[in-house]
Amino acid sequence: MNVNVKLSINDEERRNFADYLDGHTSQRIATRKDVNNFVRGCLDAALNYEAKITSPFVSEEDEIKQLTIKGFDASYIRGWLQVKNR
Fold first, then answer.
1. Closest to 56 measured CA to CA, from 22, 15, 26, 84
2. Average pLDDT over residues 9-29
3. What CA dihedral angle connects 72, 74, 76 and 82, to 10 degrees?
4. What value does the mean pLDDT of the chain take?
């Protein structure tokens, strides 16, 4: 199923979101891809997709390494961790 969600964010919000994703301040603004990957990571973690990706007994650092090796980008991983660490 394709889900179309209308989300309007201004340039300041995009810049703040990019800072959050990157872990430091910069002039970069978040792209559509950054937002989509973040949301996908949130959804996968909320739906317990983690069982298919990582073991529940690994450290967060190892989990990040596993996700990176599997090709997930930083915005996806941030979204994943945002939900998983709740």
1. 84
2. 92
3. 140
4. 83
